[in-house]
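User: I'm putting together notes for a lab meeting next week and I want to include a structural view of one of the chains we've been expressing. I don't have a solved structure, so I'd like a prediction I can at least talk through. The sequence is below, exactly as it appears in our construct file.
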Amino acid sequence: MNQRFTKYQVATFIALLFHTIGLVGILFVKTDFFIESTVFNLLLMFALLVWTQKEKSTPFLFFFAAIFLFGIGFEVTVVNTASLFGKYHYGNVLSLKVMNVPIIIGINWFVIIYCCGISIHTLLMKAINHMAKDTEKKPMRLKALSVIIDGATLAVFFDWVMEPVAVKLGYWQWGEGGDVPGFNYFSWFLVSVLMLAIFQLSKFDKQNKFAVNLLLIQLMFFLLLRTFLL
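Assistant: Thanks for the context. Below is the predicted structure for the 230-residue chain, given as structure tokens.
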């Protein structure tokens, strides 16, 4: 009897395969090819997220456009004024730039915010549904606030894991001494709160198992690189 794989399983396998190849290549082969493939990998993960999104509705498209444009616009502002995040600049690894900011950064913001938002939403809905069996009430306002705050906290943790690896691989560089300033993470939290508020207000289907899996895969990818590369 033939067993049919779900799109979530197929997407997870592809993501795991490409991140494993990239991890092995960066750690052991040590050629620029694997680092320079970052843009392709990000675009592939973005395509898999869109593919596994149940409904490509107008609110979902609005959410993507809002995060992409907000991300690009915000990065252009801070990179060229050295405000909020601190003084840093992007290298050439992430390819085509607009006003000193790689266009792929808009995609990266979407991937991070979407995955963090979906992950927290999934976790909270399981807890809320379990709670509703006893109280017959669903604390949806509390859930909305938790998606925004907890999702932003998760995004900051992801950045903390990724940041030194990104600097080491030449994605971007910090100006003074090369050290990541502490207020960078506070700024990340504030920006993530705003973006996750857009996520929460956008009325599209927020069930995507692959998004949760991708977040875990990327966290493990950067954790391993942080452990063995630095």
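A couple of points you could mention at the meeting. Residues 104-135 form the longest helix (32 residues). The beta strands are 88-90, 97-98, 101-102, 172-174.

User: Perfect, that's what I needed.
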